[in-house]
Amino acid sequence: MRAVGEADVIPVMGAESTPVWRDWEQAWEQALYGPGGFVRSGQPPAAHFRTSVHVGGLLAEAVVELLGRVDTALGHPATVDLVDLGAGGGELLAGVVERLPTGLRSRVQPLAVDLRSAPDGWSLPWATAMPDRLHGLVVAHEWLDALACPVVVEVDGVLRRVQVATGGPERDGSERAGPAADGAARAWWRRWGGGSRGEVGLPRDTAWSAVLSHVVAGAAVAVDYGVVRPADTLAAYRHGRQAPPVPDGSCDLTAHVHWPSVAARGGRLVTQAEALTRLGVSAGVPDPDGWGWLLHAERSGQLAELSDPSGLGGFGWLLAERGGARRLLG
């Protein structure tokens, strides 16, 4: 990948060798969600990266506890919505439903929301958009990080949008500085202390506001990795390995969530390690009889991975409470 600079010029050798430059945000959106894009291709996320939903069932247990607290806060209504936004392979929602206590299971209305098609054999409701109004809990697990946003770079004091080559021979992620960023992007960059290059998180802020507008009563929680200052974090994953970020539809494109700006739209932020503790997730007490010790060891290992501050435990949980739900995490 070549560095971006004002003098970044590629000689034109003929039509067949002319690169096609696109704004990174547009190329990112198309590479993930356009026809033939990574998300639309139906590839399961688990084939490309490992995250909390793939570490046993402790995350599902945490969501069950959180949903129970929402249910109590709402006065145990006749129905409780449970939306898994950006459901991916559906592992989290399936795990939560499987672990629901009987009294709650009969009232919960689960829904997986994703642009992917439902996995083979899937039996729970699946949609491509959230309900207009819901009473319950929305879980957006690693959803925000996959929303495309502008990539900008400062060149001679001017904040410019970065372009990436999407055609011709330069399809290796080559970049160049494009036009000046608009006023909204510049204002966001200045407000949140952006440096020389990074991603403008305004589309994520707007998306989170839209999620909250659907929640009449209950809560929404976004679980993701993030930063507290804008930074250059654009990355790609393919077949379990990090790869150069190339918008060709062959890899998952992602960038860290800028938590302060998203939280300004609504919510309180804690780390995943803190959230699991506050929701009472533990390895339990080892049972000396039978295979109880093995189960305890397995849960201990899973909890250690989910709570590691340098890994998954450092993920943020942004919890926004709506319509009477209060202090759900204590």
UniProtKB/TrEMBL annotation:
Query: Which E.C. number(s) belong to this protein?
Result: 2.1.1.-
Q: Which organism is it from?
A: Rhodococcus antarcticus
- The residue range of the signal peptide is none
The record's Gene Ontology biological-process terms are: methylation
Entries under InterPro entries matching the protein:
NDUFAF7, NDUFAF7_sf, SAM-dependent_MTases_sf
In Swiss-Prot or TrEMBL terms, this protein is called SAM-dependent methyltransferase
Going by the UniProt record, its keywords in alphabetical order are: Methyltransferase, Transferase
Group of enzyme by EC: transferase
GO MF term list: methyltransferase activity
Q: Which domain of life is it from?
A: Bacteria
A Pfam family: Methyltransf_28
